[in-house]
Amino acid sequence: MKYIATTLSILCLFFGATIANAQSITLPSKINATLDTLIYVSPVVDGDDVGWDIDPGLVDALTPLPDVQTKMGFNRIFFANTAGTYTVRAWTAKVVDGKAKLSNVVTCLIVVTPVPPGPTNILKHVNIIGAEANVISLSVQNDGTIRNMCTTAKVAVHVYKASDTMPTGMATLAKTTGMPCIILQDSAGNVIVSSPITTLDAARTFIKSKMVE
Q1: In this predicted model, what pLDDT tens digit does every residue of 68-100 receive, in sequence order?
Q2: φ, ψ for residue 141, nearest 5 deg
Q3: CA distances (Å), 106 to each of 29, 50, 133, 145, in order?
Q4: pLDDT tens digits along 148-179
Q5: What is the pTM assigned to this prediction?
Q6: Which residue has the higher pLDDT, 12 or 66?
Q7: What would the DSSP string read from start to end of 3-58?
Q8: Residue 25: which residues within 8 A CB-CB, separation 6 or more?
Q9: Distance from C-alpha of 37 to C-alpha of 206, rounded to nearest angstrom
Q10: Which residues of 59-71 are buried (b: 16+ CB within 10 A; e: fewer)?
Q11: If 0-12 CB within 10 Å is exposed, 13-18 middle and 19+ buried, where does residue 28 land?
């Protein structure tokens, strides 16, 4: 009996170590987005590197910005020029006992729909949240181009620290979007769209795309 108990203990330790070291990756099963907005894909990774298979209908927003992509780690940002359903696949690899082990391939469906028309979609509030987080987000907060653009369009700009009290639901949306971020609202306070802050130019383009010409 002692031999059996000892053997079982060794097996449990062996398989427990194997499970602990197993490579894995998860993605959201589905992401809903609207046209001309940034789509943030954040995998949960236990591995040394990530491979991607991106639908050709999606545009990688950070391709011209390799330094920013490096800082983003395994996270990716896309946008689509046409409405539709797009597929993103990813996998990871991890060195275990000196050998590279591949994970299963996981899939995320990205459903992009046209921006709904109507007066409730007219931009009236730009909320910059978590602007104290880094140099890029601080530059967005203090950018003269954004301020002038909003003043001309009669759009109010609001700045919140991550710790500030915000309107109902905005703090939750900011956490879901990923701070620092920008949340755009109409005159009634309804959220039009949100996006993480990645670069100053991207923030300018994002805000301008939602303004009424």
Answers
A1: 888 888 999 999 999 999 999 999 998 888 788
A2: -60, -40
A3: 9, 11, 31, 41
A4: 999 998 999 999 988 888 887 888 899 888 88
A5: 0.47
A6: 66
A7: HHHHHHHHHHHHHHHHHHT--EEE--SEEEEETTS-EEE--EEESSEEEEEE-TTE
A8: 43, 44, 45, 46, 47, 50, 90, 91, 92, 103, 104, 106
A9: 7
A10: eebbeebeeebee
A11: middle
- The tokens describing 18, both together, are 């194997």
Judged by DSSP in three states, 108 sits in strand
Mean predicted confidence (pLDDT) in 13-30: 66
Instruction: List domains and CATH numbers for the chain.
Output: 24-113 (2.60.40.1080), 119-209 (3.40.30.10)
Distance CA 79, CA 196 (A): 13
Peptide linkage before 196 cis (omega within 30 of 0): no
- Mean pLDDT, the chain, whole residue set: 83
| Distance from chain centroid for Cα 117 | 25
Entry field: residues in the chain:
213
pLDDT for residue 4: 35
Q: How far apart are CA 111 and CA 109, in angstroms?
A: 6
Integer Cα distance of 106 and 89 in angstroms: 6
